[in-house]
Specification:
The complex is a heterodimer of chains A (322) and B (336). Chain A has 322 residues and is an alpha/beta fold. Helix content of chain A is 31%, strand content 21%. Chain A contains 10 helices and 11 strands. The chains are: A alpha/beta (322), B alpha/beta (336).
Chain lengths: 322, 336
């Protein structure tokens, strides 16, 4: 096995509530490893902890317990100066392309800024490097002197991508990067991510609530619910033969643009809502909405079991299939 | 095809004043809705779908906008109706729900006060009577503790619960038509499934017609029987959902359907629509999609009209008869 580019071990990220009386368990015991060059997808609903997990992976948040390892080393053991250098290789792109760009900076200045901070490229070359990156993501040079409000959402997201690419990262966390974009624009951005991956040998941690998007781009997908993984496997396997009832419900809830006579699958509509992460249910945290929950689910946390090679699930009642 | 439509929109156009200029956001929008029918309007941001809904409800700011055309609802033109007359229709005969229930609900009143207001205004009910009906309305949208929700403020409820409360407010007067503008977009997919089921159930139980505005083709496919595609302020296609999905006649509808990831093998490049929507200030006189269209020809720079491509299937494309455009099915599904 090669050295994982990111290894997450029993990660917990807890936040105090505003009145400091309770603890929000945003990420509550997650382990996985991402191999260089792969796209690891994380799907979950709001409040599942997927964004917190993404931020912890790029050291924007410190683990409360457990570790995040970059190429086998713990970045939190480094000195502040060393960490600043090391984290260049681990970048993140966010959902809202507007909020991520400074409205008072021209596009060129925004894209050049990471280079100014990193100081790896001589200052005379930085504009050229920034313009090359803009060109690479499909932004014509005449846009470089404009301000963010003069660009469309899709163009702004391209600028954000160019911006992280300037420091030559190895891994990019993509946190809902196409959620704010129109369908026709979305396809172009997803294609761009795929091209850049081939060209620069990038690894992606692709976080989204959109099943269509995540199964198109990912080599493996983790299904997250209330701070923990419910299932992990290849996209085809998750879609066609899920082991966890939550995965199954999530897949069936996705509206599909098919004519009525072809929408055969009976939709599983989950009752109720996602419980509060300050006080997740005992045992299996999905049990309060699970259609097959039994007494055992309240008393015992299900083990993370390998149901078939590379396909894991955390459910007492999942049976390995022949 | 059927009897008298419930709503017949024709020549609907919305103009906005921007400084000294006036721009036209939508032009010549025409469609009709039969009683009990569920019609979806699909399109991307800026195509005019929300503005169309707001214009029908008389909710555009009079100081900065101008609406032309007509919308006949139960024999009355509701465009340009005097405020008093409009109030008798809006809320009572036509209900509405919006994308973000938090901004549509008033944060300083309880849910019960907000439903109660609707009932008292339209039916002159007493306070007690209004409470009974409000609690019943909350129960009918699947809220398990309607008494508690009745006395809650919006911020005390989850997003899904707030949207249920919005639907209860919209439906308490048993309107003939419900205009729903992206009602599930802010919700999680498992909660979205609950709300879609609820809307379908209510519409079939009460016979309320639905005008469902969404950018999500999947949601439209699951909720509606007819689909209207809008692009750059115009209706470009109007057909039964199943026809439009399987064999779209407009290149834009086809492009939208083909760009969905489910149709492409994993990792393969997704078909995308290059370019962007023309600016309102600089709208071409001819086909508004021509600059992005793979099938554009010299003739496309002439103004396009809605023409019949098949029975009950209208399209705004001069080339519709020459084109065989792919829809939402994979090659495999087509064979099956």
């Amino acid at each position: 096995m090669t050295q994982p580019i990111v290894a997450v071990e029993n990660l917990r990220v807890l936040f105090p509530t505003r009145d400091r009386k309770e603890t929000v368990k945003a990420v509550d015991g997650v382990s996985f490893a991402v191999q260089p060059g792969e796209t690891f997808g994380i799907i979950g609903e709001s409040g599942s902890g997927k964004s917190t997990l993404g931020r912890a992976v790029v050291c924007l948040l410190k683990p409360t317990e457990g570790r995040v390892l970059h190429n086998g080393g713990n970045p939190h053991d480094l000195s502040a100066a060393e960490l600043r250098r090391a984290r260049r290789e681990y970048q993140i792109v966010f959902q809202d392309p507007n909020a991520a760009l400074n409205p008072r900076m021209t596009i060129l200045r925004s894209v050049r800024e990471p280079l100014d901070i990193a100081g790896t490229v001589p200052s005379g070359d930085r504009d050229r490097v920034a313009l090359e990156m803009l060109d690479r993501v499909g932004i014509a040079p005449e846009f470089s002197t404009r301000y963010p409000h003069e660009l469309s959402g899709g163009q702004k997201q391209r600028v954000n991508i160019a911006r992280v690419l300037t420091v030559r990262p190895k891994l990019i966390v993509c946190d809902e990067v196409v959620a704010a974009l129109d369908v026709s624009i979305r396809a172009g951005i997803l294609n761009l991510f795929a091209d850049l991956q081939r060209e620069f040998g990038l690894t992606y941690l692709f976080i989204t609530h959109d099943l269509g998007v995540v199964s198109h781009v990912s080599s493996r997908i983790a299904v997250m619910y209330l701070g923990a993984f419910m299932e992990l496997g290849a996209p085809e396997a998750l879609v066609s033969r899920p082991y966890h009832p939550y995965t199954e419900a999530l897949m069936s809830a996705e509206p599909v643009p098919l004519p009525s006579h072809m929408r055969t699958g009976q939709r599983i509509v989950l009752q109720g809502e996602i419980p509060s992460p300050t006080n997740p249910p005992s045992g299996c945290r999905f049990r309060t909405r699970c259609p097959i929950a039994k007494d055992l689910c309240a008393s015992k946390t299900p083990d993370w079991r390998e149901m078939e090679p590379g396909h894991f699930a955390a459910c007492h009642f999942a049976e390995p299939r022949p | 095809m059927n009897g008298e439509p419930l709503l017949a929109v024709s020549g609907l156009g919305v103009h906005f004043r921007m400084g000294r200029q006036e721009v036209q956001a939508t032009r010549d929008v025409a469609f009709s809705i039969q009683p009990g029918e569920r019609v979806g309007i699909v399109g991307e941001s800026g195509c005019g779908k929300t503005v169309t809904g707001l214009a029908l409800l008389g909710l555009l700011p009079a100081a900065t906008s101008r609406v032309e055309g007509s919308a006949m609802f139960e024999g009355q033109n509701i465009i340009g109706l005097a405020p008093r007359a409009l109030r008798r229709v809006r809320g009572r005969k036509i209900g509405m729900i919006f994308q973000e229930p938090m901004s549509a609900l008033d944060p300083v009143f309880t849910i019960g006060q907000q439903i109660g207001e609707t009932i008292r205004v339209h039916f002159g009910a007493t306070r007690e009577d209004a409470r009974t009906r409000a609690v019943a309305a909350l129960a009918s949208v699947g809220i398990s503790s309607p008494e508690r929700v009745h006395d809650s403020y919006p911020h005390q409820l989850s997003g899904g619960m707030r949207q249920r409360a919005m639907i209860a407010i919209a439906l308490v007067c048993e309107p003939r038509l419900l205009i729903a503008d992206e009602p599930t977009t802010a919700l999680d997919v498992t909660i979205q499934a609950q709300i879609i089921d609820l809307l379908l159930d209510l519409s079939s139980r009460t016979g309320t017609a639905l005008l469902f505005i969404s950018h999500d083709l999947g949601v439209i496919a699951e909720t509606c029987t007819r689909m209207i595609t809008m692009y750059a302020g115009q209706v470009v296609e109007d057909a039964p959902v199943d026809f439009a999905l399987v064999r779209p006649r407009h290149p834009y509808t086809s492009g939208l359907l083909r760009s969905l990831p489910r149709l492409s093998p994993r990792g393969a490049a997704l078909p995308s629509i290059s370019g962007r929507v023309p600016s309102l200030r600089d709208m071409p006189a001819g086909c508004r999609f021509a600059a992005r269209c793979a099938h554009a020809q010299p003739g496309c720079d002439a103004p396009q009209i809605m023409a019949s491509a098949a029975p009950d299937h209208l399209v705004r494309c001069a080339r519709h008869a020459d084109l065989d455009l792919p829809g939402a099915l994979t090659e495999l599904e087509k064979v099956a």
